[in-house]
Design a protein that fits this description.
195 residues; alpha+beta; four-stranded mixed sheet; Glutathione S-transferase; Glutathione-S-Trfase_C_sf; Thioredoxin-like_sf
Length: 195
């Protein structure tokens, strides 16, 4: 059995979702970032942490990739062009979506108040809007991000879409809004949301 450590309103939700998609047995420990339990496993205090075979694995994307590879689902085979395209999309989402949202969070509540720069959010929203245009140009014919099969980037993008809406970063591209609405109907997504 796996153990997922991290509150459900963090990037740990990505891990909970993949667990549900894969039908894996797991224990969820909804620890907060920088809590004693988390720091004992990750000195940076960040969540999620996955305990697999007694070993802590850090970073949501590393965890998603590990689980998809280990269980042979939600991913393309390593060393293939399809996997290179999948990995390229993953990096794009992390660079263009996740990073903008994380920077906005840092300047909203993560950093000490005296270090926060609220004006940065305007430029981050502008970048986020521009990135949506680029993303729509890269999307496959569907129903998933890269075509007919769900992969790790679908989890990352949908989580970023949820995060964006919570942070008041508008989803401006109709195709992206339709995609997010469709992904949110998945039973595994809903189970992860309830965790």
């Amino acid at each position: 059995m796996y153990r997922v450590i991290g509150s459900g309103n963090s990037r740990a939700r990505r891990v909970l979702w993949i667990m549900e998609e894969l039908g894996l047995d797991y224990e969820h420990v909804p620890a907060l970032p920088r809590s004693e339990d988390v720091v004992a496993l990750n000195p940076a205090g960040k969540v999620p942490v996955l305990i697999a075979d007694g070993v802590p694995i850090l970073d949501s994307t590393a965890i998603l990739t590990f689980l998809a590879d280990r269980h042979g689902q939600l991913t393309q085979q390593g060393g293939t062009i399809a996997r290179a395209i999948q990995d390229s999309m993953t990096q794009f989402l992390l660079d263009e979506f996740d990073s903008a949202l994380w920077m906005a969070a840092r300047h909203s509540f993560v950093l000490p108040e005296e270090l926060r720069q609220s004006a940065i959010k305007d430029s981050l929203k502008w970048e986020f809007t521009r990135s949506q245009e680029v993303l729509v140009g890269r999307m496959g014919p569907g129903p998933f991000l890269l075509g007919p099969e769900m992969t790790v980037p679908d989890i990352i993008l949908t989580h970023c879409g949820d995060w964006a809406e919570a942070a008041h970063f508008p989803i401006t591209q109709p195709r992206l809004a339709e995609y997010l609405a469709r992904m949110r109907t998945r039973p595994a997504y809903r189970r992860a949301q309830a965790a």
